[in-house]
Amino acid sequence: MVTIRKAIGDARRIVVKAGSSSLTTPQGTIDADRIDALVDVLAARRAAGTEIVFVSSGAIAAGLGPLGLARRPRDLATQQAAASVGQGLLVARYTASFARYGLTVGQVLLTPDDMMRRSHHRNAQRAVGQLLALGIVPVVNENDTVATDEIRFGDNDRLAALVAHLTRADALVLLSDVDALYTGDPSRPGARRIDEVRSAADLAEVELGGSGRVGTGGMVTKVEAARIAGVPVVLTDAARASAALAGEPVGTYFHPGDAPRMSSRNLWLAHATTGQGRVLLDAGAVEAIVQRRKSLLPAGVTGVQGEFAAGDPVDLVGADGRVVARGLVNYDATEIPELMGRSTRWLARELGPEYEREVIHRDHLVVLA
Fold first, then answer.
1. Is 1 assigned to a binding site?
2. pLDDT digits over 292-304, tens only?
3. Which residues participate in substrate binding (predicted)?
4. Cβ neighbours, 10 Å, residue 263
5. What is the CATH number of domain 274-367?
């Protein structure tokens, strides 16, 4: 297994993600000892010549104590307030901890727009790349202070996978409060640890709980992150971080798939968004999108469901009710009925040149079928 994991030990750039439980106390305060222990590991790998991009959860959790909150709030506004307070505390702690090794950190707060919009994506990629070139350790988090329920990464496991694409990293290490992936809750008898995942077949025995999580809390998002990362992934707990980064046989090792890596924008559309509505397609449009990777034109639209605005992600649905793709729509839901079944040339002539455009351009569309 050590030979199999040589890709981790030899990686020149690694994205490391740590969950809130690895960084904070149950009372919602920053655990300085845990952070220092993790920074010790990251700084050692950094000193060995590997570039480290650190994706850190914990902003909301770190803000609970200062705000006098006993538990994570359910409403978005209070979550945003907690993140605003906690993010500063968290970065201050990282700044002090990495400074023990003469290392400087740079905070990078990302929103889905930074993965979705080409100019934002290039700017984010350039910013992180320059931080690394200057010897800075990027500390990445979702910008929870301004995130909304409708459009957000949803969890930092998916964010870490997308950052691995953004930075063209060689490997991804996910640090959790569980030492590996198990077939069920590891605290219960009969749960079997999974050392390697080569394909979906290796996950056949993994149980999905009623909450939609794999085995224990949050595992489903880690499995999904490993699936979309496109690079070798290790899942383990923070106590085994040093061994994981060295390529030792700890935790669960996910082999990268054989499929070409998707763009960060398409990864975000496929795995980190929810369709704000549905656009119904005829058979010809489904074939054009799925088989020929074409844009969606008004002529192939047969109906609209839900309320959405131009720029929102929407699901594209065939006549059988199956979602075949997701994309960023160019029209409001109220505009589309007038366009259905029409050619873009007819629309431009009858409604004006601004209507001579696709419902969804192929550059803003990802096939899911």
1. no
2. 999 999 999 999 9
3. 57, 144, 156
4. 15
5. 2.30.130.10
